[in-house]
């Protein structure tokens, strides 16, 4: 059974066919999913979804692209919601240097504040890292994020960055890109990540794995990611699924 550790069932793309999407995930062997909220609307929706479905959990935080919009009240609100038993992590937070809606300094400040919050409420952190590997690692170190650990979601860094994250108690999660034919780096890195720190995800509706690249991604496709990672690890899909699901439950404190 698989655990998709990063889904956005809480955005418009799934409004029309949420039930069917969830049914397809279950048919594909997905046992649990972590719904990631990253602004007002998506956090509200994530909190609703975890009430509606037993096997859904939520992570709540503020996306780095929208860091300019995050107020102290928002942070307070996230802190209050984080007491809910089905909120399993803070985030996604981090840095995204691909888009320039929020200046780097603003992103860094919002990131630091969310690390402080995660430590305060004692939850792991979900990190979004786009073209910002070294700055992410530096901030995680400066803020002693190893106290909570968390997930480097849809990891795209090299082994040097991965090693520093592992040293800080973080898990490395792979998504669709590990299946792309021309993507060498995530395949090399996946081979080397210790089995007890490995996770799989879709980040749906984004980044659909091969052979669905370019289409809307959905949680059922986490099986395609898991199959590729199992192949790289030279193990069966069942073994890989069992270990990564165990890792996710342990990290999220799900019994
Ligand atoms: Zn992300
Ligand atoms: Zn995401």
Structural notes for this entry:
The longest helix is centred in the middle third of the chain and has 18 residues, at 104-121. This protein is 41% helix and 18% strand. It has helices spanning 18-27, 40-52, 72-81, 104-121, 133-142, 159-167, 185-192, 222-232, 237-252; strands at residues 2-7, 30-37, 56-60, 87-96, 125-130, 150-152, 170-174, 198-200. It has an 8-stranded parallel β-sheet, sandwiched between helices. Helix 3 (72-81) links the parallel strand 3 (56-60) and strand 4. Helix 8 (222-232) packs across helix 9. It binds zinc ion (2 copies). The site of one zinc ion has 5 residues, from loops.
Descriptors:
41% helix, 8-stranded parallel β-sheet, 9 helices, binds zinc ion, 255 residues, alpha/beta
Gyration radius, in Å: 17 Å
What ranges have pLDDT less than 50 throughout 5 or more consecutive residues? none
Query: Sheet with the most strands?
Result: 8 strands, parallel
**Order of the strands making up the biggest sheet:** 1-2-3-4-5-6-7-8
Q: Number of DSSP helices? A: 9
Order of helices and strands: EHEHEHEHEHEHEHEHH
Roughly how many Å apart are the termini?
15 Å
Strand composition percent: 15-25%
Mean pLDDT equals 98
Task: Tell how many strands the DSSP assignment holds.
Answer: 8
What overall geometry do the principal axes of the alpha carbons give? globular
Q: What structural class do helix, strand and pairing data support?
A: alpha/beta
> Helix fraction?
40-55%
List the ligand species.
zinc ion
